[in-house]
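Here is one chain, start to finish.
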Amino acid sequence: MITLFATTKNFTDIFKTIQLNALNSWRALSNDIQIIIFGDSVGSKEAAEEIGADFVPDVRCSSQGTPFLSDIFLQADKRAKFPIMAFINADIILPNNFLETIPIAQKRIHNFLMVGHRWDMDVKKNINFNDPKENKLFWEVAKKLSTRHECTGIDYFIFNRGTFQNLPNLTIGRFGWDNWLLWKTRRMRIPLIDVSDGIFAIHQNHSYVFNKFKGKSDILSGTESENNQQITKGNTLNILDCTHEYFEGKIRRKTDKASRIRSLHRLPMIFPELAIPIKLYRRLYMMFNYS
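Its structure:
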Protein backbone atom coordinates (compact mmCIF):
# COMPACT_ATOMS: atom_id res chain seq x y z
CA MET A 1 0.00 0.00 0.00
CA ILE A 2 0.93 3.67 -0.08
CA THR A 3 0.87 6.84 2.01
CA LEU A 4 -0.51 9.88 0.17
CA PHE A 5 0.07 13.30 1.70
CA ALA A 6 -0.83 16.86 0.79
CA THR A 7 -1.46 20.35 2.05
CA THR A 8 -4.63 22.22 1.14
CA LYS A 9 -5.94 25.72 0.55
CA ASN A 10 -9.03 26.95 2.36
CA PHE A 11 -12.07 24.87 1.44
CA THR A 12 -14.05 27.86 0.18
CA ASP A 13 -15.67 28.75 -3.16
CA ILE A 14 -14.37 26.69 -6.11
CA PHE A 15 -11.46 25.35 -4.05
CA LYS A 16 -13.94 23.45 -1.87
CA THR A 17 -15.27 21.58 -4.89
CA ILE A 18 -11.85 21.04 -6.45
CA GLN A 19 -10.14 19.78 -3.31
CA LEU A 20 -13.01 17.53 -2.22
CA ASN A 21 -13.03 15.99 -5.70
CA ALA A 22 -9.30 15.34 -5.46
CA LEU A 23 -9.41 13.89 -1.94
CA ASN A 24 -12.43 11.73 -2.68
CA SER A 25 -10.75 10.32 -5.79
CA TRP A 26 -7.77 9.32 -3.63
CA ARG A 27 -9.93 7.60 -1.06
CA ALA A 28 -11.92 5.81 -3.78
CA LEU A 29 -8.70 4.02 -4.78
CA SER A 30 -8.77 2.00 -1.56
CA ASN A 31 -9.93 2.22 2.03
CA ASP A 32 -6.57 0.82 3.10
CA ILE A 33 -4.25 3.56 1.83
CA GLN A 34 -3.07 6.19 4.30
CA ILE A 35 -3.87 9.82 3.51
CA ILE A 36 -2.34 12.68 5.51
CA ILE A 37 -3.60 16.27 5.29
CA PHE A 38 -1.14 18.89 6.56
CA GLY A 39 -1.96 22.45 7.62
CA ASP A 40 -4.84 24.20 9.34
CA SER A 41 -6.58 25.73 6.33
CA VAL A 42 -10.29 26.45 6.67
CA GLY A 43 -12.23 23.20 6.36
CA SER A 44 -9.19 20.92 6.19
CA LYS A 45 -9.98 19.13 9.45
CA GLU A 46 -13.54 18.40 8.36
CA ALA A 47 -12.34 17.21 4.93
CA ALA A 48 -9.82 14.88 6.55
CA GLU A 49 -12.52 13.42 8.80
CA GLU A 50 -14.84 12.93 5.83
CA ILE A 51 -12.37 10.74 3.92
CA GLY A 52 -10.75 9.07 6.92
CA ALA A 53 -7.42 10.87 6.58
CA ASP A 54 -4.87 11.74 9.25
CA PHE A 55 -4.98 15.45 10.06
CA VAL A 56 -1.81 17.32 11.05
CA PRO A 57 -2.53 21.03 11.60
CA ASP A 58 0.90 22.10 12.84
CA VAL A 59 3.37 22.68 10.01
CA ARG A 60 6.30 25.07 9.78
CA CYS A 61 5.42 27.93 7.46
CA SER A 62 6.87 31.05 5.93
CA SER A 63 6.09 34.45 7.44
CA GLN A 64 3.14 34.60 5.04
CA GLY A 65 1.74 31.30 6.26
CA THR A 66 2.75 29.03 3.38
CA PRO A 67 3.97 25.55 4.41
CA PHE A 68 7.61 24.62 3.93
CA LEU A 69 8.46 21.62 1.77
CA SER A 70 11.06 20.56 4.35
CA ASP A 71 8.66 20.16 7.26
CA ILE A 72 5.87 18.51 5.27
CA PHE A 73 8.22 15.85 3.93
CA LEU A 74 9.90 15.39 7.32
CA GLN A 75 6.63 14.91 9.18
CA ALA A 76 5.15 12.71 6.45
CA ASP A 77 8.21 10.47 6.54
CA LYS A 78 7.83 9.99 10.29
CA ARG A 79 4.07 9.38 10.14
CA ALA A 80 3.96 7.17 7.06
CA LYS A 81 2.64 3.65 7.60
CA PHE A 82 3.84 2.35 4.25
CA PRO A 83 7.21 2.19 2.44
CA ILE A 84 5.92 4.00 -0.66
CA MET A 85 4.83 7.61 -0.35
CA ALA A 86 3.30 10.17 -2.69
CA PHE A 87 3.10 13.93 -2.29
CA ILE A 88 0.22 15.20 -4.41
CA ASN A 89 -1.16 18.67 -5.04
CA ALA A 90 -4.67 18.87 -3.64
CA ASP A 91 -6.30 19.74 -6.97
CA ILE A 92 -5.26 16.47 -8.67
CA ILE A 93 -7.78 13.70 -9.38
CA LEU A 94 -6.06 10.32 -9.50
CA PRO A 95 -7.09 7.62 -12.00
CA ASN A 96 -8.49 4.24 -11.00
CA ASN A 97 -5.26 2.42 -11.98
CA PHE A 98 -2.97 4.62 -9.88
CA LEU A 99 -2.06 1.87 -7.42
CA GLU A 100 -1.42 -0.65 -10.23
CA THR A 101 1.38 1.37 -11.84
CA ILE A 102 3.65 1.68 -8.80
CA PRO A 103 4.51 -2.04 -8.26
CA ILE A 104 5.83 -2.19 -11.82
CA ALA A 105 8.55 0.29 -10.88
CA GLN A 106 9.20 -1.46 -7.57
CA LYS A 107 9.98 -4.73 -9.35
CA ARG A 108 12.32 -3.02 -11.80
CA ILE A 109 14.12 -0.43 -9.63
CA HIS A 110 14.88 -0.41 -5.90
CA ASN A 111 14.82 3.37 -5.39
CA PHE A 112 13.07 5.92 -7.59
CA LEU A 113 11.03 9.08 -7.98
CA MET A 114 8.00 8.81 -10.22
CA VAL A 115 6.51 11.95 -11.77
CA GLY A 116 4.41 12.70 -14.83
CA HIS A 117 2.42 15.12 -16.89
CA ARG A 118 -0.97 16.27 -15.73
CA TRP A 119 -4.05 16.85 -17.88
CA ASP A 120 -5.89 20.15 -17.33
CA MET A 121 -9.68 20.25 -17.28
CA ASP A 122 -12.55 22.40 -16.06
CA VAL A 123 -14.45 20.61 -13.28
CA LYS A 124 -17.19 22.65 -11.68
CA LYS A 125 -19.24 20.10 -9.76
CA ASN A 126 -18.71 17.46 -7.12
CA ILE A 127 -17.97 13.98 -8.46
CA ASN A 128 -18.93 10.82 -6.59
CA PHE A 129 -16.01 8.53 -7.41
CA ASN A 130 -17.57 5.71 -5.39
CA ASP A 131 -20.45 5.53 -7.84
CA PRO A 132 -19.33 3.27 -10.74
CA LYS A 133 -21.46 5.00 -13.36
CA GLU A 134 -20.45 8.51 -12.33
CA ASN A 135 -16.81 7.45 -12.08
CA LYS A 136 -16.85 5.90 -15.54
CA LEU A 137 -18.60 8.93 -17.07
CA PHE A 138 -16.06 11.32 -15.55
CA TRP A 139 -13.10 9.52 -17.10
CA GLU A 140 -14.83 9.25 -20.47
CA VAL A 141 -15.36 13.01 -20.46
CA ALA A 142 -11.81 13.61 -19.22
CA LYS A 143 -10.33 11.73 -22.16
CA LYS A 144 -12.24 14.00 -24.55
CA LEU A 145 -11.96 17.40 -22.87
CA SER A 146 -8.69 17.46 -20.92
CA THR A 147 -5.45 18.92 -22.29
CA ARG A 148 -1.97 17.70 -21.43
CA HIS A 149 0.02 20.32 -19.53
CA GLU A 150 3.53 21.30 -20.50
CA CYS A 151 6.53 19.43 -19.09
CA THR A 152 7.31 21.98 -16.36
CA GLY A 153 4.14 21.34 -14.38
CA ILE A 154 4.66 18.55 -11.85
CA ASP A 155 1.87 17.73 -9.43
CA TYR A 156 2.64 14.32 -7.95
CA PHE A 157 5.80 12.70 -6.60
CA ILE A 158 5.98 8.99 -5.78
CA PHE A 159 9.01 7.72 -3.89
CA ASN A 160 10.36 5.44 -1.17
CA ARG A 161 10.03 6.54 2.44
CA GLY A 162 13.31 7.97 3.68
CA THR A 163 14.48 9.15 0.25
CA PHE A 164 14.37 12.90 0.92
CA GLN A 165 16.04 14.09 4.10
CA ASN A 166 17.10 17.59 5.23
CA LEU A 167 15.27 19.42 2.46
CA PRO A 168 15.58 23.24 2.33
CA ASN A 169 12.80 25.63 3.35
CA LEU A 170 11.17 25.97 -0.06
CA THR A 171 7.60 27.23 0.08
CA ILE A 172 5.00 24.92 -1.43
CA GLY A 173 3.07 26.24 -4.41
CA ARG A 174 5.60 28.93 -5.24
CA PHE A 175 8.31 29.20 -7.89
CA GLY A 176 10.50 26.20 -8.66
CA TRP A 177 10.23 23.89 -5.64
CA ASP A 178 8.85 21.01 -7.75
CA ASN A 179 11.43 21.40 -10.53
CA TRP A 180 14.21 21.63 -7.93
CA LEU A 181 13.09 18.32 -6.43
CA LEU A 182 13.69 16.67 -9.81
CA TRP A 183 17.17 18.19 -9.91
CA LYS A 184 17.79 16.92 -6.37
CA THR A 185 16.74 13.43 -7.43
CA ARG A 186 19.14 13.40 -10.38
CA ARG A 187 21.84 14.84 -8.13
CA MET A 188 21.29 11.90 -5.75
CA ARG A 189 21.62 9.53 -8.73
CA ILE A 190 18.15 8.16 -8.15
CA PRO A 191 16.24 6.98 -11.24
CA LEU A 192 13.70 9.61 -12.26
CA ILE A 193 10.74 7.94 -13.96
CA ASP A 194 8.17 9.58 -16.24
CA VAL A 195 4.93 7.66 -15.71
CA SER A 196 2.72 9.91 -17.87
CA ASP A 197 1.90 6.94 -20.10
CA GLY A 198 0.50 5.03 -17.14
CA ILE A 199 -1.05 7.66 -14.85
CA PHE A 200 -3.75 9.87 -16.37
CA ALA A 201 -3.87 12.50 -13.61
CA ILE A 202 -6.44 15.27 -13.95
CA HIS A 203 -5.66 18.80 -12.78
CA GLN A 204 -8.81 20.80 -12.12
CA ASN A 205 -8.42 24.29 -13.54
CA HIS A 206 -8.78 27.17 -11.11
CA SER A 207 -7.96 30.83 -10.76
CA TYR A 208 -4.96 32.10 -8.83
CA VAL A 209 -7.00 34.64 -6.91
CA PHE A 210 -6.84 33.53 -3.29
CA ASN A 211 -5.56 34.86 0.02
CA LYS A 212 -3.94 38.21 -0.93
CA PHE A 213 -3.00 37.18 -4.48
CA LYS A 214 -4.70 38.88 -7.41
CA GLY A 215 -3.36 36.45 -10.01
CA LYS A 216 -0.58 34.04 -11.02
CA SER A 217 1.88 36.89 -11.61
CA ASP A 218 1.57 37.89 -7.93
CA ILE A 219 2.50 34.37 -6.88
CA LEU A 220 5.49 34.15 -9.22
CA SER A 221 6.86 37.57 -8.27
CA GLY A 222 6.21 37.50 -4.52
CA THR A 223 8.76 37.27 -1.73
CA GLU A 224 8.15 33.54 -1.26
CA SER A 225 8.95 32.83 -4.90
CA GLU A 226 12.01 35.06 -4.64
CA ASN A 227 13.12 33.03 -1.62
CA ASN A 228 12.66 29.82 -3.59
CA GLN A 229 14.74 31.19 -6.44
CA GLN A 230 17.55 32.11 -4.06
CA ILE A 231 17.55 28.55 -2.70
CA THR A 232 17.25 26.69 -6.00
CA LYS A 233 19.85 28.89 -7.78
CA GLY A 234 18.56 27.87 -11.18
CA ASN A 235 18.94 24.16 -10.42
CA THR A 236 15.64 23.04 -11.88
CA LEU A 237 14.62 20.25 -14.24
CA ASN A 238 11.36 19.08 -15.76
CA ILE A 239 9.69 15.89 -16.94
CA LEU A 240 11.79 15.76 -20.11
CA ASP A 241 14.84 15.23 -17.88
CA CYS A 242 13.61 11.87 -16.57
CA THR A 243 16.10 9.03 -16.93
CA HIS A 244 13.41 6.35 -17.28
CA GLU A 245 9.85 6.09 -18.54
CA TYR A 246 6.78 3.91 -18.19
CA PHE A 247 5.92 2.43 -21.59
CA GLU A 248 3.47 -0.34 -22.48
CA GLY A 249 3.33 -1.66 -18.94
CA LYS A 250 7.09 -1.67 -18.33
CA ILE A 251 9.79 0.65 -16.99
CA ARG A 252 12.64 1.33 -19.41
CA ARG A 253 15.63 3.63 -19.56
CA LYS A 254 15.30 6.51 -22.00
CA THR A 255 17.88 5.94 -24.73
CA ASP A 256 16.49 7.88 -27.68
CA LYS A 257 18.65 10.48 -29.39
CA ALA A 258 16.81 13.52 -28.00
CA SER A 259 17.05 12.22 -24.42
CA ARG A 260 20.78 11.46 -24.71
CA ILE A 261 21.58 14.91 -26.06
CA ARG A 262 19.38 16.62 -23.48
CA SER A 263 21.04 14.69 -20.66
CA LEU A 264 24.51 15.67 -21.84
CA HIS A 265 23.50 19.33 -21.66
CA ARG A 266 21.92 18.95 -18.20
CA LEU A 267 24.72 16.97 -16.52
CA PRO A 268 27.03 19.98 -15.93
CA MET A 269 24.21 21.64 -13.94
CA ILE A 270 23.49 18.46 -11.99
CA PHE A 271 27.15 17.74 -11.26
CA PRO A 272 29.00 21.10 -11.50
CA GLU A 273 32.10 19.60 -9.90
CA LEU A 274 32.41 17.43 -13.02
CA ALA A 275 31.43 20.12 -15.51
CA ILE A 276 34.77 20.29 -17.36
CA PRO A 277 35.13 16.56 -18.15
CA ILE A 278 31.40 16.30 -18.91
CA LYS A 279 31.57 19.16 -21.42
CA LEU A 280 34.65 17.62 -23.01
CA TYR A 281 32.92 14.26 -23.31
CA ARG A 282 29.82 15.97 -24.73
CA ARG A 283 31.91 17.68 -27.40
CA LEU A 284 33.57 14.41 -28.41
CA TYR A 285 30.26 12.55 -28.30
CA MET A 286 28.57 15.05 -30.58
CA MET A 287 31.57 15.12 -32.90
CA PHE A 288 31.68 11.35 -33.45
CA ASN A 289 27.96 10.60 -33.34
CA TYR A 290 26.24 13.55 -34.96
CA SER A 291 28.85 15.24 -37.19
